[in-house]
Amino acid sequence: MSTKLLMTLSALFMAVLGAAASFLPQEIATHFGVQADSHAVLLLQIVGALYLGFAILNWMAKEVLIGGIYSRPLALGNFLHFAVVSIVLLKAIAAGFRAPEILVATAIYSFIAIGFGRVLFTSPRAKPS
Known about the structure:
about 75% helix
C-alpha cells in the first residue's frame, strides 16, 4: 500500500471520528450506554478535537516521503496511536464486547496499524521517474 493511500485513509477515518465526537457527543454517549452528563460530553468533544487535529496532520502530509528515517515522528505517532487503540479494542473483545461497531473499529484500526508499522520499519520506495 502506498503511503499516500495510507495517509489519506487514516486522515478520512480520523476526520469522521473527530467530527462525530465533536458534534454528536450526547448521541455517542447514549449509544454506548454512558450517561451523557457534562463531563462525558466534554471528554468526547476533547477527543473529537484530537482526532480532527491528527486527521488534518495526516491529510496535509499525505504527499510527504514517509518511511525509514523520513518523517519518522509522523510515522511513529500514527503507528503508536493505531497500534495502542488496536490492542485496547482487542482486549475489549476478549473481555466480551461484541458490538458490531467495536468489531469493525478493531479491524480498521488493526489494518491501519499494520500499514504504519510497515512504513515505520521499512525504507521508502523510490518513485519511478
